[in-house]
Amino acid sequence: MEQFAIFQQGNSIGTLSVEREGLFYHFGCDISSRQVLRIFVVSGWKSHYLGIPYPQEKGAHLDARIACSHFPDGISGAVASIYPKGQWQPWCGELDGVAIADALISEERVLALSPDEALKLPGWLAYMQEETVYEQPRMLLPLDADGTPLAPEMQDAASPESEQ
């Protein structure tokens, strides 16, 4: 059985245990908060919605089973969010050798880092663009298919318009 810290805005709020049972993963989630939160499991550069933990005497708990085929890159972390599934999914993981615990990721593979997390990547700050996401300041950093940050000249070369 593997265990992962569950992060919400960079803070650990609980634990996710993962055990493979045949063709499925069994997830057990315990968080200290009784706030309505959505739990996401991180696999590579994607976040998969797990569910909403139900309140208990102390905190909240969630049990879920999802086919292993949904996680071709394995399980690498867990995050909680007050926001429903949408354009931006919560994400945590490693970028350029640095642990990131407070980020969002879009389907277009753009990482939206909190200002504190962005400061952990000083070499990429010049390539980040400040924007408001979910009413919070975020630093946007486009990634390529392998998760490598894209410098502006690389973004231009990767855009469909540059191929015409």
Outline the structure in words.
The chain has 164 residues and is mainly beta. The protein has two domains: 1-85, no CATH class; 106-164, no CATH class. The protein is 7% helix and 52% strand. It has an eight-stranded mixed β-sheet, with no helix packed on it. Strand 12 (129-133) and strand 13 (136-142) form a beta hairpin.
Topology:
Elements: E1 2-8, E2 11-21, E3 24-31, E4 38-43, E5 46-51, E6 54-55, E7 60-67, E8 77-81, E9 88-95, E10 98-106, E11 110-113, H1 115-118, E12 129-133, E13 136-142, H2 152-158
Parallel strand pairs: 1-8
Antiparallel strand pairs: 1-2, 2-3, 3-7, 4-5, 4-8, 6-7, 9-10, 10-11, 11-13, 12-13
Question: What's a quick, concise take on this entry?
Answer:
The chain contains 2 helices and 13 strands.
Mean pLDDT: 89
Give the strand content: over 45%
Q: What would you call the shape?
A: globular
Helix proportion: under 10%
Uncertain runs are none
Order of helices and strands: EEEEEEEEEEEHEEH
Biggest sheet: strands, sense, closure? 8 strands, mixed
Mind telling me the C-alpha Rg?
Answer: 17 Å
Number of strands: 13
- Total helical segments: 2
User: End-to-end distance, in Å?
Assistant: 50 Å
The strand order across the widest sheet is 5-4-8-1-2-3-7-6
| Overall domain count | 2
* Helix vs. strand class: mainly beta
